[in-house]
Design a protein that fits this description.
By secondary structure, this protein is of the alpha/beta class. The longest helix is centred in the first third of the chain and has 17 residues, at about 45-60. It is globular. The chain has helices at about 10-20, 45-60, 70-85, 90-100, 115-120, 120-130, 145-150, 155-170, 185-195, 205-215, 220, 240-250; strands spanning about 1-5, 25-30, 65, 90, 105-110, 135-140, 175-180, 200, 230-235, 255-260. Helix 2 (about 45-60) packs across helix 3 (about 70-85) and helix 4 (about 90-100) packs across helix 10 (about 205-215). The strands form 2 sheets. It has a 6-stranded parallel sheet, sandwiched between helices. A 4-stranded parallel sheet has the order 6-5-7-8, with helices on both faces.
């Protein structure tokens, strides 16, 4: 199985793309809904939760781990890679690669949780890969709770997105990285507020393609994965809103299973 974890519902945007790109492979998902959001928590806490999530998924049969959370990717991915003997994929690298590819003016904006922005993980990867680039970032702490509550089309959400995006618009960015897997759920609003001349990048498509390429090149790993097109969706707390949002994102009836990641 391909194990995927996130602090809540945002990681399902990654799962949606995995369904398209890696058809038939079994997906094992864990959404830590009881502790969401991760972006407001301290580094040590995020690392602890990420280790527990990985242990839980491996115990359930995962052979590959996808950290479908920008906050966890920014502070815990290297620790996860060192600690566990399985391939680990994070969401930052593919998003950075895509942004560099599409940015013509080398003026890249980033929005994410406070923890992700404060880590400077995106800025560091961008500056390592390309010179003479301007990077501007802005934390958007209210967006994850709004998505988790299902406030996707509310007027208040549009106003908050506009407020967060405005400082980046004034920097004349030509590319905007959605440095949180919850944000693609608000992509239509974000695109409208940032303007039609700005390329909006999220890591879902790029990550799915990266994983597909890895499996083609590493047949010994690919052979360990189940291909019955059967998926399990664990959450640490089952809520009616999560159920509704999961069905909406994946466009199917999702059977949620209560899982305990306190190994």
């Amino acid at each position: 199985m391909i194990g995927v974890f996130d602090s809540g519902i945002g990681g399902l945007t990654i799962v949606k793309e995995l369904f398209k790109t890696l058809q038939g492979y079994n997906i094992l998902y864990f959404g830590d809904t009881a502790r969401t959001p991760y972006g407001t928590k301290g580094k040590d806490t995020i690392i602890e939760y990420s280790i527990r999530n990985t242990e839980f998924l491996i115990k359930q049969g995962a052979k590959i781990i996808v950290i479908a959370c920008n906050t966890a990717s920014s502070v815990a991915s290297e620790i996860i890679k060192e600690k566990f003997g399985v391939p680990v994929f994070e969401v930052i690298t593919p998003a950075v690669q895509k942004a560099i590819l599409v940015s013509k003016k080398k003026r890249i904006g980033i929005i994410g949780t406070r923890a992700t922005i404060n880590s400077k993980a995106y800025e560091e990867k961008i500056n390592e890969a390309i010179s003479d680039v301007k990077v501007f970032s802005n934390p958007c702490p209210l967006l994850v709770p709004l998505v988790e509550e299902g406030w996707i089309k509310n007027r208040e959400t549009r106003m908050i997105v506009k407020k967060y995006i405005f400082p980046l618009k004034t920097k004349q960015i030509d590319t905007l990285i959605l440095a949180c897997t919850h944000y693609p759920i608000l992509k239509d609003i974000i695109k409208k507020k940032v303007g039609k001349n700005v390329e909006v990048v999220d890591s879902a498509v790029s990550l799915a393609l990266l994983l597909k390429e890895f499996l083609i090149k590493n047949s010994e790993v690919e052979k360990t994965l189940l291909k019955t097109d059967s998926h399990i969706f664990f959450v640490s707390d089952i809520t009616q809103q999560f159920q509704k949002s999961a069905n909406m994102i994946l466009k199917r009836q999702v059977n949620l299973v209560l899982g305990n990641n306190k190994i």
